[in-house]
Fold this sequence. Notes:
By secondary structure, this protein is of the alpha+beta class. It has 13 helices and 39 strands. The protein folds into 3 domains: 10-307, Immunoglobulin-like, CATH 2.60.40; 326-603, Glycosidases (TIM Barrel), CATH 3.20.20; 612-690, Immunoglobulin-like (Sandwich). Mean pLDDT is 92; it is low at 1-20.
Amino acid sequence: MTFRTIVGVVFAVFPLVASAQDVFPRRIVSTLTAPLVAGAPKIDGNLSDPAWAAAQPVRDFCWTKSVNFQTEAFLCRDSQYLYLAARCTEPVLEKLVTENKGAALWKNDCVELFVVPEKKALFYAHLILSCDGQYSATTWVPDEWGEPTRGSQIGLKYAVGREKDAWTLEAAIPFESFGCPVTERSVWAIGVNREKHTEPAEVSSYQGGFHKPDQYPDLLFVNRAIVADGLGVRNIGQRAVSVKVKLAGTKGASGERTASLSLAPGERFAYPWKELFSRAEVGQGFAVEVTASDGAALLKEEYQFVAQAPPAEAVDPMKVPPAKFKKTVLDDPNFFPISVWLQPAGAARAFQEMGVNVYVGGIDLYPSPKDRAFLDAIAQYGMYAIAPFKKEYIESGLIDHPAFLGWMYGDEPDNADSATGRVIRTPEALLYDFATIRNADPAHRVYLNLGAGVANERQVGRAATDEQYQGYAKTCDILSYDVYPCNSISPNGPDRLHLVAKGIDRLRKWGGPDKLVWMWIEVNAIRDGEGRCPTPEEVKTQIWMALVHGANGYGFFCHSWAKNWLRENLNITGGSAVTAITPAMRQALKEINAEVKQLAPVLNSPTVENGATVRPTMGGRVDVMVKKYGGATYLFAVNMKRQAEKPEITVAGVRNGTAEVLFENRTVEVRNGKIVDEFAPYAVHRYKIVQ
C-alpha cells in the first residue's frame, strides 16, 4: 500500500460486513469495436470532441474486487489512427504521482494499453500513458525463429488534461506501427488497464488485467450501432434500433430475464443484474446475449461475481485513532525484548538458548510452519512475534494468539528506490498505513525499521531528509534502525561503532521520550567484500552503546550472503544462509543476553536525567546512563572509542562508598560521588551502588 497526503486528508479503505449481495460483476468475455469516425478528435486532452460521442465506450472497470475509483475510456478510428481517450477519476489531482520515468513509468498514475494485432498473443504492443504527458509505447515482432523480439517505438500523438476530480488523456496510435493492415474483417484484441498510485492506490482493468493478451476482449473495426457500454449496451448509431437483451445466471447463479426494447440514438440500457441476481455469491456469474429484431447476434458477454470493495472514506492522518493497547510482555518490567529478523520458526529452540524472545517477521515467509502454526511453534519456547499487517490475521483471530505481539511495515522505507532515487515509501504513505492498521486493530503496537541513513548521513542509498525522518517517527509505536558498522561502513567501519549510538540519539530526538526504540546488531559477515564479521566484544559494545543511549530493545540480523565467510566459518557452501551464527558467537550472545535479561527491570526503569558527568582523558569519550531501582543506583558506562580510557565519572546524589562492578567479580571505590576506572578499548562496565 502506498499513500500521499491530500491537503491534510487521506483516503482509507475500511471493511464492511459482507453479505451475499456484496458482489460486483467482473467481465470475462466481451467484444469492443473501434468505429470509423468522420472527423478525427483533436489530441489536446480535452474530451469534448464530437468524435468521442460516436466512439465505443469502455466503462465499469474492475479487479479481483470492485474498485472505488472508476475509469471510462473511448475507442474510435480513422484510416490512419486508432484513437483512445480516457477519463480517470481522481479526487486529489494535486497529488498525482508523476516522478517516475523510463522503465519505471508504470509507477506513475497512468493508463496501460495492450494492443494485440490479429490476436497474436506473443506480439502485442504495450503502451504506458502517464498522467503527466510522458508515454512509453513499444511493439513486439517475430524474429527469425518466430519468437517475439522488441520492435520499434510507436510514435504517438499524446496529450493529457484535467477536469474536476479526474485526469484525462487522448492518444492517436498509428496503425502502421503494428505492421498489419486493418479492414472491417480484422479481429484484434485490446486490454485497457489503469494504475492509480495516489492514495488509496488501486489497479483496475476493463477485462483481463496486465499482460494477459489471451484474456482481452476482441476489438473489431466495423461500424456497429449497438455496442457494449460497461454493464449495459448503448446505441451509438444515428437511428433507433430494436434489440432483445437476455441475462441468464451461470455457475450456480439463478435467474433469467429477456428485455425487448428500442434504443434511441445515444440511449443506454443498463443490465438489471442487481435486481435479477440479488442473492448472487462470489464465483457465480451471468451471461448476456444481445440480438437484433431479426435474431441476428449483436453482442455476447460473460461476467463472474467478485467481492464488492469496501468504500473509500476520508481520514485525517493527523487524527490516527488512539491506541487501546492490550497488555503484552512489552508492558512487563521484567521483560526486555531481544529479537531476530525474518527467521524461521524451526530455529526457535536455538534462539531461545541464546536469550532471544521475539521474532520480527518471518511468520508468513517460510513454507512451514507459517501463520498460526508459526506462532504455535515459537510459543513452545516462550517466544513472541511481530507480523506483517494482514486483514486475514484479524479476521481469523490470529491476533488473539498469546504469541502475537504486533504489526510491522516493510523494511527500510527511507532507502532510495533504485528507479527514482527517492525514498521507497514516504512518511505520508506510512502514516496512511498507520491509520489503516490502527483503525483495524487499536490493541497492538506497530513496528517500523529504518536504514543505515539514520546514523550515516553519507550512506549510499540514503534518500530521506531529516524532516522525512521526523515524519517516519510518527507512523509507528516501535521505531528501530540498522547500521552494521563492521560490515557496511566504509572507511574504517570497525572503528566507527559510535554510529550505533548516534542513530539511537536521532531516533530519540525524532520519536520523543515515549517512543519505544530498538536497535539491530550485526553478528556475522553479511557479504563478502571490505566489511568483516564483528567480534563478540564488538557486538557487546554495540548493544551497550544502544542501551546507554536509550534503546528499549535490540535484535540480531542473522542472514549472510558472504560466500567465502560461510564456507570458512560454518562449512556452508550454498553461498547464503538464513541463520549464520558461529558457535563462538552463539555462546557470546547467550552470555550477553543473559546479563541484559538480569538487568531488565533496571533497564526498563526511568533514566535519571543528568545522573552522571564524565571527565575523560585527552581525546577519549565514555558515555553513561544512570538508573535508580530497588534502592540502588546503577551506572552503565561504555567506552565509545577504540582506545584505552581512564575517565573520572561523577554520579549525582552519591557520596563515599563502594560500587560493585557487575559481572566482573570486583568493586571500585566511590569517593565524593566519583568513580575512576580503567576501560579497555570499547569496553563496557556496569556499576551498582548501594548506600
